[in-house]
């Protein structure tokens, strides 16, 4: 079960070595506020935003990206407009030089009107949030996205239980592959996560490397009504703090 409390920070914040910060943000801001957010984006990001067909999707992307830059600028004490990103071979972003704080690890996820941002020093991490749509073919999607063990567990649940169990499994698997930074090159069938309501969030086993289950910590996140979330962080010696923007 999740026990986090979302609080509003007071004053200037720091990120201690053994803390992981997760920020929650609404993306449905008034249209009049978009220009004030867009100014921190690079020319390439502005051009990317303009390629969205629907205004709502364009606005959400601008808000999500500008907030990422703003929070990164806060933690690194850098003008957010000067932040540059590198991508690994699988497309996971990281801070690029000349920023002096490239040891800052981060990950972002957004779905519908909500975004989650996760930050830590020198700890790979992944975060995922999903809007829990009611019109999901649970078993059919699970055949392609879940491991055989997870599929059997899901199939044994009642229809009422499947809805949240499906999204618990989905977000935990997504958060793990994002923490690994390998995208879908890491087969979703190679590892099992917990999904039953009375189980804590956990990477149960990895058929790729048995040590993986000991290497990573997993937490359920409760972003708000209608959403599911998960966080995966390397190591166990860390404390979670959750904040609202």
* Beta strands, count: 12
Arithmetic mean pLDDT: 93
Query: H/E order of the elements?
Result: EEHHHEEEEEHHHEEHEEE
Largest sheet: 5 strands, mixed
The radius of gyration over CA amounts to 18 Å
Approximately how much helix is present in the residues? 25-40%
Number of distinct helices:
7
The general outline is globular
CATH superfamily of the domain at 128-244: 4'-phosphopantetheinyl transferase domain
What would CATH call the class of the domain at 128-244? Alpha Beta
Might you state the CATH topology name of the domain at 128-244? Ribosomal Protein L22, Chain A
Major β-sheet strand ordering = 1-12-2-6-5
Distance between termini?
A: 24 Å
Regions with pLDDT < 50 over 5+ consecutive residues? none
CATH architectural type of the domain at 128-244: Alpha-Beta Complex
Strand-helix topology:
Blueprint: E1 6-7, E2 19-26, H1 34-38, H2 43-50, H3 55-76, E3 85-87, E4 93-95, E5 104-111, E6 114-121, E7 125-131, H4 138-145, H5 148-155, H6 159-180, E8 191-193, E9 203-206, H7 212-215, E10 216-221, E11 227-234, E12 239-244
Parallel strand pairs: 1-12, 2-12
Antiparallel strand pairs: 2-6, 3-4, 5-6, 7-11, 8-9, 10-11
Task: Describe the overall structure.
The chain has 245 residues and is an alpha+beta fold. It has a domain at 128-244: 4'-phosphopantetheinyl transferase domain (Ribosomal Protein L22, Chain A, Alpha-Beta Complex). Helix content is 31%, strand content 27%. It is built from 7 helices and 12 strands. The protein has helices spanning 34-38, 43-50, 55-76, 138-145, 148-155, 159-180, 212-215, and strands at residues 6-7, 19-26, 85-87, 93-95, 104-111, 114-121, 125-131, 191-193, 203-206, 216-221, 227-234, 239-244. A 5-stranded mixed beta sheet has the order 1-12-2-6-5, covered by helices on one side. The protein has a 3-stranded antiparallel beta sheet with strand order 7-11-10. The chain has a two-stranded antiparallel sheet with strand order 3-4. β5 and β6 form a beta hairpin. α2 (43-50) runs antiparallel to α3 (55-76) and α4 (138-145) runs antiparallel to α5 (148-155). It starts with 5 loop residues before the first strand and ends with a strand. The mean pLDDT is 93.
């Amino acid at each position: 079960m999740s026990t986090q409390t979302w609080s509003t920070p007071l004053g200037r914040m720091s990120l201690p070595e053994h803390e992981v910060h997760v920020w929650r943000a609404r993306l449905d801001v008034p249209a009049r506020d978009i220009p004030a957010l867009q100014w921190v984006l690079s020319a390439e990001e502005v051009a990317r935003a303009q390629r969205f067909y629907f205004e709502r999707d364009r606005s959400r992307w601008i808000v999500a990206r500008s907030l990422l830059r703003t929070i990164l600028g806060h933690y690194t004490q850098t003008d957010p407009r000067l932040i540059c990103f590198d991508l690994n071979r699988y497309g996971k972003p990281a801070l690029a030089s000349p920023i002096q704080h490239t040891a800052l690890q981060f990950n972002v996820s957004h779905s519908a009107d909500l975004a989650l941002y996760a930050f830590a020093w020198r700890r790979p991490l992944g975060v995922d949030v999903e809007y829990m749509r009611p019109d999901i073919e649970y078993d059919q999607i699970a055949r392609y996205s879940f491991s055989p063990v997870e599929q059997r567990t899901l199939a044994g649940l009642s229809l009422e239980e499947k809805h949240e169990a499906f999204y618990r499994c989905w977000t935990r698997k997504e958060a793990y592959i994002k923490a690994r930074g390998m995208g879908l090159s890491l087969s979703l069938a190679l590892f099992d996560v917990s999904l039953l309501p009375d189980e804590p969030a956990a990477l149960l086993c990895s058929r790729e490397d048995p040590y993986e289950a000991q290497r990573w910590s997993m937490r359920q996140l409760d972003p708000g009504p209608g959403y599911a979330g998960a966080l995966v962080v390397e190591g166990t010696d860390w404390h979670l703090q959750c904040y609202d923007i």
